[in-house]
């Protein structure tokens, strides 16, 4: 992983796009001209106007909720066009501003440590050789539609577009855990990503699953989304998928 200084993120946008393209990671067609340049989410209480943006790598025609960290909402009309949400229209929700702006796929590893027999660092090419599964799953932010609340509540003022449906291909988490050999007595698996808090005393963004849930064979580390690589802003090169989990 190679982090850019977040303060240079804006002028880095074009550069990292080119880097991605050079790595063949982008697969992004030129953004079509947008029919409109803003939407009105019709939030009760007003202030529902939002620009549409194509300024983020791998994304086009997104409702701009916030620049940094990026909060991008899917316009409702996208959901009428098909069962699956196209990757370049899939919503984006990051909590910390220090997010990965490019990823060195040669150096990227999934590390498993803690209460295991042998801590492992699994490179991507090894992950891609493990048994894989595929299913469709919806990803919906728990804050979806928050902007419609009355009275207004604090947090991102989303319309209904903080959700998306995709086909995911990946490796059951169980196989990855088994490479490390979970030891008896382990209670939970804690997951971290490449994002980092900005302040020293701020907590990292991490989530846990019970060990039995993590090993159910359905929870997967996905590396394909709608048959393509994940957009950088949706977790490239891989992310955890936990169907049916709130
Ligand atoms: N590492 C990391 N994972 C994360 C988050 C985050 O900020 N950092 N946000 C979570 C939240 S609240 C949501 S709604 C989904 C959004 O996924 P997406 O941005 O790919 O649509 O990612 C989840 N996983
Ligand atoms: Mo969320």
What does the model show?
- By secondary structure, the chain is an alpha+beta fold.
- The chain has one domain (35-241): Sulfite Oxidase, Chain A, domain 2.
- The protein has five helices and 14 strands.
- It has a five-stranded antiparallel sheet, with no helix packed on it.
- Percentage of residues assigned to helices: 10-25%
CATH class: Alpha Beta
How much of the sequence is in beta strands?
25-35%
**Structural domains: how many:** 1
What distance separates the N and C termini?
A: 29 Å
Strand order of the largest sheet: 1-2-3-4-5
- Helices and strands, in order, run as HEEEEHEEEHEEHEEHEEE
Largest sheet, in brief, is: 5 strands, antiparallel
Radius of gyration: 19 Å
CATH fold topology: Sulfite Oxidase, Chain A, domain 2
How many beta strands in the DSSP annotation?
14
CATH architecture: Alpha-Beta Complex
How many helices? The count is 5
> What is the assembly state of the chains in this entry?
single chain
Low-confidence stretches: 1-29
**What is the CATH homology-level superfamily?**
Oxidoreductase, molybdopterin-binding domain
Q: Which structural category fits the helices and strands?
A: alpha+beta
